[in-house]
Write a structure and sequence with these properties.
With 352 residues, the protein is mainly alpha-helical. 70% of the residues lie in helices and 0% in strands. The protein has two domains: 20-312, no CATH class; 317-352. α10 (216-230) packs parallel to α13 (267-284) and α11 crosses α12 (255-264).
Amino acid sequence: MSPRSQVPLAAATQKIESVRTTKKGPLIPYHVVLSVTFSVGLISAAFAIIPDCDEGIIYLLTALSSLWSRFQFKVQGPNVVSILLVFNYWEPTHYLSYGDGLQTWEYSPIYAIRSWLYVGVHSLLTLPFSLVPSIQKYHIFFILRAILAGIGSVSQAELYDALSRSIGPEVGLLFILISVPSAGMFQAIPAYLPSSFAMYFVMFGIAEFLKTPVFLSRAVTYFAVAGLLGWPFCLALVVPQLSLWGFDDGRARGSINMIQRMACSVFSPLIVLAIVVGADSLAYRKPVFVPLNIILYNVFGGSERGPDLYGTEPWWYYLANLSLNFNIMAVAALASIPVLVCIPIHTIMINL
């Protein structure tokens, strides 16, 4: 047996902890990255078009967004998204803010697959601005998109800082170089959608896992907000994070201590759950659990319901989407999969 395989477990664990808590700073200062991401976010808030804008401004924004998209090596400009965005989120927000708005079947108490708490939070974000005299509704529209772009920019900067300090400055820099020019991020950052909302808090959660692995509850809370208030399917992303944390923490402090800390981290997600269920039940005037309804409808809805109701894309849709959103980096990421598989095998062979 190779001497390399006889390294004490404590020494190996200490090495892992030292890598995860390295004090090397990022290559680019945090405030510079935040300024860049926020600037790009504001551009996307203005130029990543969604429907129902004034006709005159659409022509101007279409031209400008096309120029921006060419700079990003996109095939075409930011596409006009589906009516889901307008009628599922902007209309209910208009109803809460001004007292009138159209309702879709998703908000019917029969289905209850949209959260009133989610749109209510966004209505509160715009409330101070709506009180300004002579402000127009389209001002509120762009203000909310700018606020969302700001939140998304902070989440990107936080994840960049966490990657730089916990894994390596080069990794953090690579993340920013990939995410900032991405056409997908350009469209998603200011979007008023639960999936974009979930993306913000997933990035916050991963950053907390990397920066402060001792405080597990904070990271789990971010994931709970992402999944329970945003898009429930993203809760699957917390599984690998918890698995990695449990592996490292269990070896360093013992399995009993790990289980105790994991049990303590459940309380904050339960508070988030209680708030979501309570607010939505009050809005629907009956007990509802919207995240569960979304999963049941989309996964177990049957042939007359669910994700196949309006058709599905072919299998290569995901590859095409990745290539449009991340260009050459998508190819590099897919090519890295066999490398990641081969490296552990090579290491095992050396240690035999």
